[in-house]
Amino acid sequence: MEDMYREIILDHAKNPRHAGILESADIECEEHNPLCGDRLHLTMRVDENDRITDVAWDGDGCAISQAAASMLGEEIIGKTLDEVRHIDKERILEMIGIPLSMNRVKCALLSLKVLKIGAYGLAEWRKSEDEEEDI
Amino acid sequence: MSTTHRAFPYDIDRARADFPILNQEHHPGTPLIYLDNAASSQKPLSVIETLDDYYRRYNANVHRGIHKLSEEATVAYEAARVKVRKFINAGSKREVIFTRGTTESINLVANSWGRANLKPGDVVLSTVMEHHSNIVPWQLLAAEKGFTLRYVPILSDGTLDMDTLRHELATQPVKFVTILHMSNVLGTVNPVAEIARLAHEYGALILVDGAQSVPHMPVDVQAIDADFLAFSGHKMVGPTGVGILYGKRDLLEAMPPWMSGGDMISRVTLEGSTWNDLPYKFEAGTPSIAQAIGLGAAVDYLTQLGMEQVQAHEHILTEYMLERLAEVPGVTLYGPQYSIDRGAVATFRFADIHPHDLAQLLDAEGIAVRAGHHCAMPLHDYLGVGATARASVYLYNTPVEIDALIEGLYKAKKVFAG
Q1: Which of B21, B174, B272, B321 is 20 to 30 Å apart from B408, CA to CA?
Q2: B287 and B204, same structural domain?
Q3: What is the C-alpha to C-alpha distance for residues A133 and A100, in angstroms, rounded to an integer?
């Protein structure tokens, strides 16, 4: 059980990187996970080459959802929207680095959902969801 | 009477051994002969044990808990959804919605899609052979929304009048077609793929009532190109209290929720709410968890037997049942002849014995049949009969049981002649 709350996750959850709301953001999106009551609000700036220059997360929820958002933010800064497109569920679970039960996977993936819907729209998110069909 | 039969595709005795209820005496000394499968099927031990296992070992609510029991229940519930998806070849498990049964599935479409899209001037096209569950929801909605409900008649051989159906589509502003796949009275199997093609050609959507077809034959929603398919678990060796609505994803995405409450929301404030993703948007409240998992076990059972095999078994048995019934003086059969590919029901009247009396006399012989209008009063009006008797077979019935039915008819005749 301690594994689930290993140090790096607790660190990100307690001290989330890129916390807050960016003024004049290019991309803004908010989603909720009704299971835990998680809420994540993403604001993001991109330059003229669609490169992500700044990211901010505002929200509240369980350690898993908040830590995943914090880690994802660090991962995507400096990358282009095209490079970020192929970040998938597996990559998020790899960053979390601990086995998650079915219900908790939703917590971990909330930030990816917000990013995908914000950056590419709902259709793109659904496409990536379909890849993990038939569990 | 010939007692040789074409080769059945699987060992019936072995299949029967899977159903504990069949291994009992209906009355002391009289074995049970269950011929009321169109009303509800019996359950194999694997389904019964699945329900038992859930309640004994991991009973908990789904989608809410972090604890181990809830996690296990959620995984089993969602695994059942995937089994159903494969069984009907839906493109995505998000297109598979758990309901209480066919009736609720049809009500969902009427109240969600229908309420949002139907207006005065529109026509919903159905048929005279529908079950009440595919008539009444549309009548209620028509009274509220002011659209017109029209019904395609049947021909004298019990098949659908396809010429009239084409004519209706060509000349009426039909927005929605709602039609059963297999009649629970006539046994007629409607050409739903062809009807879907026609409906789409004229810009209408189609709902297929698969309550009697999905349990008895392979049904592929993509091959049919149905926009919606409704069916029940309890008629396909699964538990009561669970059914399925399949819907094409684009349509479901655009549809508003019907029932509302827990589990179907994304976020609720006192001012308003946003909806959860598919399929949960349409699964408000705690679902029939044990039953859904049990339906998964039923799908496993049918898949293992093979739906082609089930269909072949029933075809041989239905042909035999119709042949034998036709030989009995005084029997009037309804529905297509056995030479036509048809479902596993035989609906009939016998001499001047009322079907209720007949069913009672047959019950005394251990034989369970249905008597009445089978939730299809408009069809009985159309046929000009008040009530009928119906024998319906399934994967575990045998020719010997059909012989017993015939003997039962002769005994009934003696009682009434005496």
Answers
A1: B21
A2: yes
A3: 17
Q: Say if B69 is an interface residue toward chain A (CB within 8 Å).
A: no
- CA A73 to CA A6: how far, in whole Å? 19
- Quote the domain boundaries for residue B196: 49-304
Q: How many domains does chain B have?
A: 2
Rounded CA gap, A46 and A24, in Å? 11
Say if CB B245 and CB B211 are below 8 A apart.
Answer: no
Which fold does the domain A2-121 belong to in CATH? Answer: Sufe protein. Chain: A (3.90.1010)
Distance separating alpha carbons of residues B348 and B168, to the nearest angstrom: 31
Strands (E), B4-121: 25-27, 30-31, 33-34, 96-99
Interface ipTM above 0.85: no
In the structure encoding, which two tokens stand for residue B335, read together? 């529905």
**pLDDT (tens digit, 9 = 90+) per residue, B285-321?**
999 999 999 999 999 999 999 999 999 999 999 999 9
Distance in Å, alpha carbon of A89 to nearest chain B alpha carbon = 17
Compare CB distances from B267 to A34, A133, A135 and report the shortest one's residue.
Answer: A34
The whole model's pTM is what?
A: 0.91
Are both B334 and B289 inside the same structural domain? no
Average pLDDT, chain B: 94
Chain A environment of B64 (Cβ under 8 Å) = 35, 103
Angstrom distance (rounded) from CA A37 to CA A39: 6
CA–CA distances in Å: residue B118 to residues B45, B136, B246: 45, 16, 20
Residues B299 and B333 reside in one and the same domain: no
